[in-house]
Specification:
By secondary structure, the protein is an alpha/beta fold. Helices cover 39% and strands 19% of the residues.
Length: 381
């Protein structure tokens, strides 16, 4: 058995910073969850940042002792998630920092496994699950190279900062000194500056994190995300971290991302306004009784739900991330041989990834030349 003195000698401090906005209901779950992370080799402090000053956060009563340090700090006004994270960081004593959202879930061995993997790196990212059980990283969506050059091509690779453990000393000052007002892109901002400064990041393929995303997150408020993306673009360009060629790539990356938000805002509005019966009626009117669905994200799954128990048969789903999609239908990649066989009698393929409809349509037609290919936007009129 390990001697207590040995344990104290190697003790590492970890700070977990959690902005709380009208989130009193989350606190007991968070404390229970993080208390399960407690282990001899490290000291764990939890910093709750109250970003809704109209509500006083209270520590719930616990049946058993809580063996972690918990501190509540209060913003003077509603400052948003970025400023709240920075305010929490000012109080953090840890060698390592984890930024959580109030509805995130860490599995019990998150800290142990992340510390095992970080080795000589400055930070480590883990794999995780979406709430529906789909993996964040998989064979068809692997962790990309954590470098500045890759960032300028592919963008931010995580779904949330909850996947990241970083040395406090490696958090870039540009991120702490330039406060974003619009919620949505502060995690992207942190990653971009980390990559610009060559922060060494180790990838941990173990599933240690669960992201709660139900359509009500900031990432589904498309107007908000657009404003946040443009604010980030303005701030990042002002930091002079790009040469001329890099700036061209950066602006293209942001433009492509932000242009999607406008398209998805239109799609979301139409989805809110149209009834299930109208969608089914539009398919029947076009004599589309057997279909394939390309794109099994939020809108693809909503379309599948809409067509359940109707006269419309969904033959299969098509998605680049075929190996992680958690639905009851056959799912395959467009390049799979089975696609031609399953969709040979399909009346149409409905594309829910509407931001790149023309490019996707061309790829589908190259494999299924006789297929009718329509956009979900077009289907809704």
């Amino acid at each position: 058995m390990e001697d207590k003195n040995d344990c104290d000698m190697k003790k590492i401090e970890i700070s977990i910073i959690i902005p709380i906005y009208r989130g009193q209901k989350h606190i007991q779950r968070l404390i229970y969850m993080l208390n399960e992370q407690k282990n001899c080799p490290y000291a764990l402090e939890v910093i709750l940042v109250n970003d809704f000053p109209g509500e006083t956060l209270e520590m719930p009563k616990f049946e058993h002792p809580v063996n972690i340090s918990v501190r509540i700090i209060k913003n003077d006004s509603n400052m948003g998630i970025h400023r709240s994270r920075i305010n929490g960081l000012k109080y953090a004593k840890g060698d390592y920092v984890i930024f959580l959202d109030q509805d995130d879930t860490l599995l019990p061995d998150y800290i142990d496994k992340q510390l095992e993997q970080i080795e000589y790196s400055d930070a480590v990212i883990c794999n995780g699950l979406w709430r529906n059980g789909e993996k964040i990283f998989s064979e068809t969506n692997p962790v990309r190279d954590c470098s500045y050059s890759e960032y300028l091509i592919s963008g931010y690779p995580l779904v949330s900062l909850g996947q990241l453990m970083i040395k406090k000393a490696s958090v870039p000052k540009e991120w702490t000194e330039n406060h974003m007002i619009s919620n949505g892109w502060d995690d992207h901002f942190l990653w971009a500056v980390m990559m610009a400064h060559g922060v060494k990041v180790k990838a941990n393929d173990e599933v240690l994190y669960i992201h709660e995303e139900d359509g009500n997150n900031a990432s589904f408020d498309w107007k908000q995300m657009y404003m946040s993306g443009r604010e980030f673009e303005r701030i990042f360009l002002s930091l002079n971290l790009l040469d001329d060629k890099q700036e061209v790539k950066f602006k293209k990356l942001i433009e492509e991302k932000c242009s999607k938000y406008g398209i998805y805002e239109t799609l979301s509005e139409k989805m809110r306004q149209i009834s299930h019966e109208k969608i089914i009626g539009n398919l029947k009117c076009r004599k589309f009784y057997q279909i394939g669905i390309y794109g099994l994200g939020v809108y693809g799954k909503k379309l599948i739900e809409t067509l359940e128990n109707s006269e419309i048969t969904v033959l299969c789903g098509i998605d680049r991330r075929k190996d992680i999609k958690n639905i009851s239908l056959p799912v395959m990649g467009l390049e799979d041989k089975e696609v031609k066989h399953i969709l040979k009698n399909a009346d149409a393929v409905v594309v829910t990834a509407v931001f790149d409809f023309q490019g996707i349509r061309e790829r589908i037609k190259s494999i299924l030349p006789d297929a009718e290919v329509i956009s979900l936007l077009d289907l809704m009129g």
